[in-house]
C-alpha cells in the first residue's frame, strides 16, 4: 500500500456562491458539526505523519472558516505545501496578507466566465468584480496563481475570452476543467453537458492558446470523459495517492464517495493512519482484485483502474461496475444516450440549471 500524497481538506460546505455544477453533496442540510480548529490541527499532523506532502484547503468556501490563517500556519509548520482552493469571494487584502505571512504557498481562484454578467449568473452571486480584484492582490503578494474555470454547455463557447482573462490577470496557470458529473453537477447533468460541436470548437482554441502562451502560462485542459473512449484514472486509483476529509471529519478516497453506500470512517473515531490502512471504505476498491470483467482481463486495468467508482455508482447503482464511460463497458449505452441527447438539444442550453443553495451569504472579511 502506498502512502497518500495529497490531502483534500474540505473545511466547510458553506459557500456564498450557488454554482449548479458544485461537487458538494446534494443533501447539504444533512451535514453539521464541522471539525474544530484543534481537530483539524490533529488531522493535518496525522496526514503529515502518513506521508502527505500537499494539502488542498477547499470547501465550499474555505475563507468562511475563521481559523483559516491558523490552519495554514499549522500546515506550513508541519512542512506541508498548502494550496487554497477558493472562489476568492471574501479574500480581502488584510486577509490575504495574513495568509501570506502564515506561509500559504499557492492560490487557486475559480471564475465562472470572462464576462461579469455571465460569470455572476452562473455563480448565482455577484462576485466577478471581487474575484478579479482578489487575483490582483494574489499576484501583488507574489503567490503563484491558478485560475480555474469549470466548463460546461453555458460557458464553453467563451473559452477564448476566458483564456484572455487569465492572461490579463497574470495567471501562472489556467485550468479549464470540463464538468465532472457528481453532486449538483450530476443533478444538472443534462443541462450542463456540452455538444460535440462545442467541444471541438473549444479544443481548437485551447490548442492555439497553448502554443501561443507556451512560455508564460500553463494551459491545463481537463477532457470531458463522457466523450472519451476510455475513462479517466480517477484519483490515480481508489485510496492510492489521495484522501479527502470532509467538513464533519469523514474520511474518503475522493470527495464524491460520500454518495456511495460504504461504511463511514471518521477522524473523530479513529486515527487517519488506521483509516487509511484498514477501513472498509478505503479497502473497498483498492488495487485490482475487486474488478469485474471486462476490466479484470483488460490490458489497461493498471492504467485507468477501471475508471471512476463514483461515476459507476451514479450511472448504474453499483460502484463495482466498469465505469460506463469506457466503450468496453456493458453499461456504455447510459453514457452514449446522454451524449446523444446533448447533441440533439438546441445550442446554448435549453434546460434550466438548478443552483445549489447558498448556505450563508455573509463572508468574513
Ligand atoms: Fe479501463 Fe476497464 Fe475499460 Fe479496460 S475495460 S479500458 S480497465 S475501464
Ligand atoms: Fe470518486 Fe472517481 S470521484 S472514484
TrEMBL record:
<keyword id="KW-0411">Iron-sulfur</keyword>
<dbReference type="InterPro" id="IPR058240">
    <property type="entry name" value="rSAM_sf"/>
</dbReference>
<comment type="pathway">
    <text>Cofactor biosynthesis; pyrroloquinoline quinone biosynthesis.</text>
</comment>
<feature type="binding site">
    <location>
        <position position="19"/>
    </location>
    <ligand>
        <name>[4Fe-4S] cluster</name>
    </ligand>
</feature>
<keyword id="KW-0408">Iron</keyword>
<comment type="similarity">
    <text>Belongs to the radical SAM superfamily. PqqE family.</text>
</comment>
<dbReference type="InterPro" id="IPR006638">
    <property type="entry name" value="Elp3/MiaA/NifB-like_rSAM"/>
</dbReference>
<keyword id="KW-0004">4Fe-4S</keyword>
<protein>
    <recommendedName>
        <fullName>PqqA peptide cyclase</fullName>
        <ecNumber>1.21.98.4</ecNumber>
    </recommendedName>
</protein>
<feature type="compositionally biased region" description="Basic residues">
    <location>
        <begin position="356"/>
        <end position="365"/>
    </location>
</feature>
<keyword id="KW-0884">PQQ biosynthesis</keyword>
<dbReference type="InterPro" id="IPR050377">
    <property type="entry name" value="Radical_SAM_PqqE_MftC-like"/>
</dbReference>
<dbReference type="Pfam" id="PF13186">
    <property type="entry name" value="SPASM"/>
</dbReference>
<dbReference type="Pfam" id="PF04055">
    <property type="entry name" value="Radical_SAM"/>
</dbReference>
<keyword id="KW-0560">Oxidoreductase</keyword>
<dbReference type="InterPro" id="IPR013785">
    <property type="entry name" value="Aldolase_TIM"/>
</dbReference>
<feature type="binding site">
    <location>
        <position position="15"/>
    </location>
    <ligand>
        <name>[4Fe-4S] cluster</name>
    </ligand>
</feature>
<keyword id="KW-0479">Metal-binding</keyword>
<feature type="region of interest" description="Disordered">
    <location>
        <begin position="343"/>
        <end position="365"/>
    </location>
</feature>
<keyword id="KW-0949">S-adenosyl-L-methionine</keyword>
<comment type="subunit">
    <text>Interacts with PqqD. The interaction is necessary for activity of PqqE.</text>
</comment>
<dbReference type="InterPro" id="IPR023885">
    <property type="entry name" value="4Fe4S-binding_SPASM_dom"/>
</dbReference>
<dbReference type="InterPro" id="IPR017200">
    <property type="entry name" value="PqqE-like"/>
</dbReference>
<dbReference type="InterPro" id="IPR007197">
    <property type="entry name" value="rSAM"/>
</dbReference>
<feature type="domain" description="Radical SAM core">
    <location>
        <begin position="1"/>
        <end position="215"/>
    </location>
</feature>
<dbReference type="InterPro" id="IPR011843">
    <property type="entry name" value="PQQ_synth_PqqE_bac"/>
</dbReference>
<feature type="binding site">
    <location>
        <position position="22"/>
    </location>
    <ligand>
        <name>[4Fe-4S] cluster</name>
    </ligand>
</feature>
<comment type="function">
    <text>Catalyzes the cross-linking of a glutamate residue and a tyrosine residue in the PqqA protein as part of the biosynthesis of pyrroloquinoline quinone (PQQ).</text>
</comment>
Amino acid at each position: 500500500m502506498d502512502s497518500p500524497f495529497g490531502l483534500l481538506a474540505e473545511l466547510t460546505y458553506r459557500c456564498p456562491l450557488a454554482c449548479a455544477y458544485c461537487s458538494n453533496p446534494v443533501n447539504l442540510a444533512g451535514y453539521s458539526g464541522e471539525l474544530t480548529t484543534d481537530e483539524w490541527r490533529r488531522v493535518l499532523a496525522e496526514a503529515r505523519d502518513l506521508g502527505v506532502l500537499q494539502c488542498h484547503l477547499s470547501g465550499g468556501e474555505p475563507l468562511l472558516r475563521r481559523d483559516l490563517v491558523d490552519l495554514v500556519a499549522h500546515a506550513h509548520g508541519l512542512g506541508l505545501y498548502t494550496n487554497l482552493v477558493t472562489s476568492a469571494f471574501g479574500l480581502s487584502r488584510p486577509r490575504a496578507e495574513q495568509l501570506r505571512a502564515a506561509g500559504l504557498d499557492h492560490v487557486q481562484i475559480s471564475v465562472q466566465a470572462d464576462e461579469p454578467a455571465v460569470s455572476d449568473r452562473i455563480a448565482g452571486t455577484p462576485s466577478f468584480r471581487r474575484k478579479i480584484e482578489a487575483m490582483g492582490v494574489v499576484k501583488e503578494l507574489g503567490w503563484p496563481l491558478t485560475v480555474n474555470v469549470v466548463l460546461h454547455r453555458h460557458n464553453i463557447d467563451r473559452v477564448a475570452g476566458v483564456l484572455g482573462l487569465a492572461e490579463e490577470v497574470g495567471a501562472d496557470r489556467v485550468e479549464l476543467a470540463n464538468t465532472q458529473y457528481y453532486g449538483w453537477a450530476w443533478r444538472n447533468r443534462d443541462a450542463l453537458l456540452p455538444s460535440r460541436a462545442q467541444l471541438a470548437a473549444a479544443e481548437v482554441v485551447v490548442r492555439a492558446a497553448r502554443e501561443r502562451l507556451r512560455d508564460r502560462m500553463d494551459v491545463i485542459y481537463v477532457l470531458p470523459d463522457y466523450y472519451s473512449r476510455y475513462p479517466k484514472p480517477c484519483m490515480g486509483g481508489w485510496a492510492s495517492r489521495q484522501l479527502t476529509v470532509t467538513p464533519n471529519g469523514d474520511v474518503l478516497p475522493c470527495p464524491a464517495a460520500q454518495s456511495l453506500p460504504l461504511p463511514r470512517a471518521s477522524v473523530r473515531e479513529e486515527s487517519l493512519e488506521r483509516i487509511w490502512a484498514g477501513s472498509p471504505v478505503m479497502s473497498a476498491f483498492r488495487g485490482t482484485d475487486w474488478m469485474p470483467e471486462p476490466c479484470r482481463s483488460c490490458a489497461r486495468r493498471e492504467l485507468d483502474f477501471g475508471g471512476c467508482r463514483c461515476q459507476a455508482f451514479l450511472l448504474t447503482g453499483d460502484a463495482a461496475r466498469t465505469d460506463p464511460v469506457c466503450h468496453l463497458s456493458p453499461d456504455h449505452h447510459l453514457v452514449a444516450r446522454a451524449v446523444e441527447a446533448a447533441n440533439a438539444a438546441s445550442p446554448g442550453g435549453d434546460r434550466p440549471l438548478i443552483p445549489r443553495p447558498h448556505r450563508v451569504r455573509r463572508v468574513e472579511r
